[in-house]
Design brief:
Number of helices: 4
CATH class: Alpha Beta
Strand order of the largest sheet: 4-3-2-5-6-7
Distance between the termini: 19 Å
CATH topology: Rossmann fold
Strand content: 25-35%
CATH architecture: 3-Layer(aba) Sandwich
Shape: globular
Order of helices and strands: EHEHEEEHEEEEH
Helix content: 25-40%
Structural class: alpha/beta
Radius of gyration: 16 Å
Bound molecules: inosinic acid, magnesium ion
Number of strands: 9
């Protein structure tokens, strides 16, 4: 393990097992409601790795799309408003949407995104996140499908970055605080 990390908190095999389980759970959930087709919307760039593994475990007809958003303000002063940097390519009106995120921290980004998407009249909207830090939550946004709940540590890997790096790691590691100073 690189000296950049204080430890690995989720191993590759654990991720694989969890993604399999989530794929089954999502398939069963929508099948039980008689929903026949999904639009999976990945939030760039963090969700790309998780989403590409997850969709291959969901046994339902689907299309995929992407959005890129940035939060206004710093994390300390976040107003919870988001700016859309890249919008979805197709209309979502009347569609069953599943938003896929890498991590829900305060929940402000997702809460805001959810409001923005509901205004376009989809038929349903659910949230799926690989990770969640429940102790940091500032909104009551519901994560319908969550991979792992983690403590309040800054983590990287499996899509999650620090200053754009470490996304390609096949595991999730806690970033060593010394790295913050170096980059
Ligand atoms: P929030 O839920 O609005 O606070 O913002 C969530 C966003 O913060 C995520 O989409 C990530 O981009 C980023 N983030 C929060 N915690 C971490 C972390 O531990 N590692 C990497 N990115 C994080
Ligand atoms: Mg993100």
């Amino acid at each position: 393990m690189s000296k950049d990390f204080a430890g690995i908190i989720i191993e590759e095999a654990e991720i694989k097992a969890k993604v399999d389980e989530m794929g089954r759970q999502i398939t069963e959930y929508y099948s039980s409601l008689g929903i026949k087709e999904l639009v999976i919307i990945g939030i760039l760039r963090g969700a790309v790795i998780f989403m590409s593994d997850l969709i291959r475990k969901i046994d339902l007809p689907m299309t995929i799309d992407f959005m890129a958003i940035s939060s206004y303000g710093t994390s300390a002063t976040s107003s919870g408003s988001v700016r859309v940097l890249k919008d979805v390519s197709e209309s979502i009106e009347g569609k069953h949407l599943l938003i896929v995120e890498d991590i829900v921290d305060t929940g402000l980004t997702l809460q805001c995104l959810k409001n923005l998407l509901w205004a376009r009249n989809p038929k349903s909207l659910h949230l799926c996140s690989f990770l969640s830090k429940p102790s940091r939550r500032l909104t009551d946004v519901t994560v319908d499908f969550c991979g792992f709940e983690i403590p309040d540590e800054f983590v990287v890997g499996y899509g999650l970055d620090y200053a754009g790096k470490y996304r390609q790691l096949p595991y999730v590691a806690i970033l060593n605080p010394e790295v913050y100073a170096k980059i």
